[in-house]
Amino acid sequence: RLCLVSEKEEDAAVRAAVVRALGDVPATPQTLAAIDAALADPDAAVRLAAAKVTRARQKDAPVILVRMARDSDPAIRAWCLDEMASASSAMAGADDAIRQAITDDHADVRIAAVHCAAIRQVAGWDHAATLLRLSSGTDARERSIALAAAARLRVTECADTARKLLADADGAVRAEALS
């Protein structure tokens, strides 16, 4: 019955709630098909709910995370990158998606991407230049994560920037510069 509601419901909030409910019932071909269909829903909240249910079930989670890391909605892209950072398994295409997200238009996505790249030790991106650029930006969260990533990746070129940010106006940035 929930599968029918998810197909025909016009209200996105109801569709998202149905998708979350489908995550709580035993997997059947119908429930899995409804969740998969929700990954392509026009509403971001529904797509995010479907991605979370898929991740919780571990069914094709790495493939879905990589694909959804390129979603049109920045909150979904950032969530997928955060999930990739905590995933222990290898993911085909993940490094490309992470490198692409490092230059995203949205700060939350860039922050998640830099964190993910540092955790997963992603190769093929200019660590020093990217982290120096972010640590000199106007967003305190970007400065803080850039310093944390630089420390994790042992990017020595950021040492001067870290010293400079000891005087940053934002306490979290100063704390990160001290660590």
**Low-confidence runs (pLDDT<50, min 5 residues)?**
none
* C-alpha geometry: elongated
Strand tally, please? 0
The radius of gyration over CA amounts to 19 Å
Structure write-up:
α4 packs antiparallel against α5 (61-68) and α4 packs parallel to α6 (74-86). The termini are far apart. 68% of the residues lie in helices and 0% in strands. It is built from 12 helices and no strands. The radius of gyration is 19 Å and the shape is elongated. It has 179 residues and is mostly helical.
Describe the secondary-structure layout.
Layout: H1 2-8, H2 12-22, H3 29-38, H4 44-57, H5 61-68, H6 74-86, H7 94-101, H8 107-120, H9 127-135, H10 140-153, H11 159-164, H12 171-178
Helix pairs in contact: 1-2, 1-3, 2-3, 2-4, 4-5, 4-6, 5-6, 6-8, 7-8, 8-10, 9-10, 10-12
